[in-house]
Write a structure and sequence with these properties.
Cytochrome Bc1 Complex, Chain D, domain 2, SH3 type barrels, 7 strands, alpha+beta
Length: 278
Amino acid sequence: MRAQIVSAVLLTLRCRSASGARSLRLAATVLMLSASAAAQDNLANPHEGNPGAISAGRALFETRCAECHGADAKGISGPDLTVIFAAGRSDGRVFQTVRAGIPGSIMPSSTAPDDELWAIVSYLKSLGTVSLVEYATGNADQGRDVYLANCARCHRVGSDGGRLGPDLSRVTRSRSRAGMTSAIRDPSAAMGVGYRTVALVTADGERIRGLKKAEDAFSIQIVDTSERLQGYLKTGLRQVQDQAESLMPPFGPDVLSEAELDDLLRFLTSVHEESDGP
């Protein structure tokens, strides 16, 4: 009996030891990944702000990247790259992503020389950063009221608002004033990847509009106007129609005055000014 107890105790200790070793290995892996991410963030772009590098990066981007990310870098089958710096990505992190690719996606790794990849990063950064001088006018407090009355149902700013449309928390860091004005006045002319409108007609005649998120030969996924992710088999649908009209209505001068637009853009800028700090 004593031998059985001793064996049980030894087995328990071995299990705890193995569990502890696994925990240590897991912790070491997490620390290594964190250190790797920090090292990526700290990589400095040797060509930052160099007009020659930006020009070269544009040519390289158009040759190697535009097929998936679009000639304007706003995305086709790949994501919009004009917002990555506004979202807080560092030059080093973007460089490493281009170098290593994204496992499990169509984004391949690259064996190109470092200088070429840094040139592409420089070009993307020139697209994705906007001078705050463009948004220096307007009243942020009044702009918040404009946002709450017209935008908050579909767009988030910080932790407030809806999720149907793009997050606006840092949008004025990556979009020029002219681009923002165009997107607000005529949103159908500026629909981004992931925000394409689709209309479905079900077997019983119900019409559903939403944003297309995924589609194959047999099914389609959309986010409907109630922000619900819904999947449908095409055999159960009468019609699937891609639409050129955005779910967002146009806000012409008769709906949103120039002064209100100015205030709204100033509010959106003030949000990321506070988070970016001095």
